[in-house]
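Posted in: Structural Biology > Protein-Ligand Complexes

Title: Requesting predicted complex, fe (ii) ion in pocket

I'd be grateful if someone could produce the 3D structure tokens for the following input. Sequence and ligand are given below.
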Amino acid sequence: MELTWKGKLEWLVMAGFLYIINAHVSEGGITSSFLRSYNYSLDMPLDSDVFRVPPGYNAPQQVHITQGDHLGKGVIVSWITQDEPGSSTVVYWAQDSQLKLQADGFFVTYNYFNYTSGYIHHCTIENLEFDTQYFYEVGIGFTTREFWFKTPPPVGPDVPYTFGLIGDLGQTYDSNTTLTHYEKSPAKGETVLYVGDLSYADDYPFHDNIRWDTWGRFTERVAAYQPWIWTAGNHEIDFAPELGETRPFKPYTARYHVPFQASHSTSPLWYSIKRASAYIIVMSAYSAIGKYTPQYKWLENEFAKVNRKETPWLIVLMHSPIYSSYVAHYMEGETVRVMYERWFVKYKVDVVFAGHVHAYERSERVSNIAYNIVNGLCKTMNDQSAPIYITIGDGGNIEGLATAMTEPQPKYSAFREASFGHGILDIKNRSHAYFSWNRNQDGCAVEADSIWLNNRYYWTHSDEASLSELRHHEKVKQLAEA
Ligand SMILES: [Fe+2]
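-- Reply #1 --
Done. Output follows.
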């Protein structure tokens, strides 16, 4: 049938109308219809190739690196020797340089119930050149092993940089797939932001710390070559008074050192770093968070001192999400939200990454900070000063996926899906970054969800819809203060 021009116009108007209706309907958020073949995965057996002990007497194993200072010119190299302490020295040299340098570290050991650790070495290399590839060697004196890393560019507002996001990884076959997908991602993450829950050793009888060692060997293939920025989760607490183990975070803090003193923190469980154009604040949901506590006092100074003209991208990492619509762990982050959400809004945090819930979820920009006990204003609302909250606890651990979701999907939830995977945050410049999520069932280059992030500091108030939200927010704030 041939349509007249009037018919064509009517058809176009109708199509546009239907499009608007459809967009409106999906405004409340998307629950993915992706179908999984299974929800649970087993830990890889102890004799798996990914857990293989490197050959040679006293060969260094479980090699991993993290940032070693506040700016990115330092690297902490950590590894374990099993037979005897050996050397804690790292020999390193810049690519194309004959000059071999060395840095001296130290080692620690610990006991946990009936387990005795190997010799855990930590060595901080300082004053490296920015944007330079370095080779390094550990195991000096016996079996040496060589690795490499690349330092980030100097800190600055328009420095592009790509972060990987991994959480709740564990050591199952799915964990292996997640790590492989990250390695093979064409987005090429340069540093991993790890949102907590590492080995899940505490799921074994007596928190079998051998599973800490297997996890260290499993992740070495990535963690020896690029920094992992560590966040402590509940599976790092290892508090077991029934086993006589009463010092929280004992295995985690012995094995994973972070540069907390460089940001004037008094605990390795909360600290900050600058890297390229990002300022990253790591919080501990499982430490004291109340007013006047060490973490509170540190965060109070920390948020206020971030210079967004230097590092426009303000990113917070913590383990427990404060906006999640899954049944598992629902509202577990509420105490953190009550204490700190107002600072996330006040200081215009761009994005908060969390794990804990074994699934993926991305929020709208929302806040719920107007409540003052008597005003009744306890309601989540759109807020362009608020961060986007991304839950990425979908690394693939032995506890399986969190498939049960609260219904109906709350408005704050923009997209949710219970599948294993990882994320990539690709910062382009001071104003734009691109976040994407890859699910393990897809090819490494496939994005199952993605969003462009407009930097909150450089966000302009030109968008009328955003302006009206801002006005609404201001009005509520005035009401709350009244
Ligand atoms: Fe957790």
